[in-house]
Amino acid sequence: MNTSSEHNDLFDICIVGAGMAGATIAAYLAPRGIKIALIDREYTEKRRIVGELLQPGAVQTLKKMGLEHLLEGFDAQPVYGYALFNNDKKFSISYNSDDSTDYHGVGLHNGRFLQKIREDVLKNESVTQIHGTVSELIEDEKNIVTGVKYREKHTREYKTVNSKLTITSDGFFSSFRKDLSNNVKTITSFFIGLVLKDCELIYPGHGHVFLSAPTPFICYPISSTETRLLIDFPGDKAPKKDDIQEHILTKVAPFLPKEFKECFANAMAEDDFKVMPNHY
Ligand SMILES: Cc1cc2nc3c(=O)[nH]c(=O)nc-3n(C[C@H](O)[C@H](O)[C@H](O)COP(=O)(O)OP(=O)(O)OC[C@H]3O[C@@H](n4cnc5c(N)ncnc54)[C@H](O)[C@@H]3O)c2cc1C
């Protein structure tokens, strides 16, 4: 790994945003000797409720890319299917049609997984890590993007990176999407997330989907001792603190199975909710 001040050369690829997409692209390409400038405004571990349940297709894709080792070493949990709960009925659906467990998803802490990918990327000599906020895509006279302008975090100075290819993977709050794509961002609802500690799942190693409550909610393991409870909050306005309490206590708590009651009460007492928009 190099630092930005040492390099003024032409990079093969400049990746804007070392999130799940950008860091994974870099992890795949860097060992192939491709010269990459990887830019992110923040490299510390994030606590987010997104991307915590990798479906089997994502796990298989990581395998195909030779990156499955990135799922090891941070207490990620295999997930073998879903369990559905509707009033008194409950049953499970496995990802595999036989007894095998090869085809499985993974429940994890998104922040830990991302840090693991980034660590792996930054071991490569061909990667230059840049800590800064990209403010502009630089274009030539033919409107071809030739690099980016960014503000370096520590010096507050504006600098440029020149590259043959620029990938913008700057996530949900992208500054560049409106100019690069005609995709209109639509928020359909919000997820409220809380962590249940030491909660024994009714179907261990399965995502649990609860359908009989007025609002759907799901839970799945994110470590060997933690279960994420994710609750839908309809509408395009983020819930306020009082709305969250009311929503959970009236539309979720009465519909939780008895096995979850104690860990749920403990999680409510901790009052540590995360809210994230659901968007397309
Ligand atoms: C509520 C919710 C639940 C989800 N659940 C799942 C799930 O269970 N399983 C699953 O596989 N997927 C899930 N997803 C989808 C998944 O989380 C996203 O597809 C994925 O995180 C997107 O990754 P990304 O790299 O595009 O963006 P991000 O992970 O947001 O990364 C963007 C990066 O760009 C950086 N950045 C932004 N702007 C700039 C700038 N100007 N300059 C420099 N850096 C910048 C940010 O700091 C960040 O590190 C979920 C999404 C949501 C919203």
How would you describe this protein?
The chain has 280 residues and is an alpha/beta fold. It has two domains: 2-51 and 112-180, FAD/NAD(P)-binding domain; 62-107 and 186-279, D-Amino Acid Oxidase, Chain A, domain 2. The protein contains six helices and 16 strands. It has helices at 20-29, 56-64, 110-122, 177-180, 241-251, 261-270, and strands spanning 2-3, 10-16, 36-40, 53-54, 77-79, 81-86, 89-94, 105-107, 127-139, 145-152, 158-168, 187-197, 206-210, 217-221, 226-234, 274-279. A seven-stranded mixed sheet has the order 7-6-13-14-15-12-16, with helices on one face. Helix 1 (20-29) packs parallel to helix 3. The longest helix is centred in the middle third of the chain and has 13 residues, at 110-122. Bound molecules: flavin-adenine dinucleotide (FAD). Residues 16-22, 39-42, 50-54, 58, 133-134, 169-172, 175, 191, 276, 278 line the site of flavin-adenine dinucleotide.
Number of helices: 6
Determine the CATH topology of the largest domain: D-Amino Acid Oxidase, Chain A, domain 2
Proportion of beta-strand residues: 35-45%
H and E string: EEHEEHEEEEHEEEHEEEEHHE
Helix residue percentage: 10-25%
CATH class of the largest domain: Alpha Beta
Number of strands: 16
Secondary structure class reads alpha/beta
Total discrete domains? 2
The biggest beta sheet is recorded as: 7 strands, mixed
* Gyration radius from CA atoms, angstroms: 21 Å
Distance between the termini: 35 Å
Label the CATH architecture of the largest domain: 2-Layer Sandwich
Write down the overall mean pLDDT: 92
Cα shape: globular
How are the strands ordered across the major sheet?
Answer: 7-6-13-14-15-12-16
Q: Ranges with pLDDT <50 over ≥5 residues?
A: none
Ligand catalogue: flavin-adenine dinucleotide
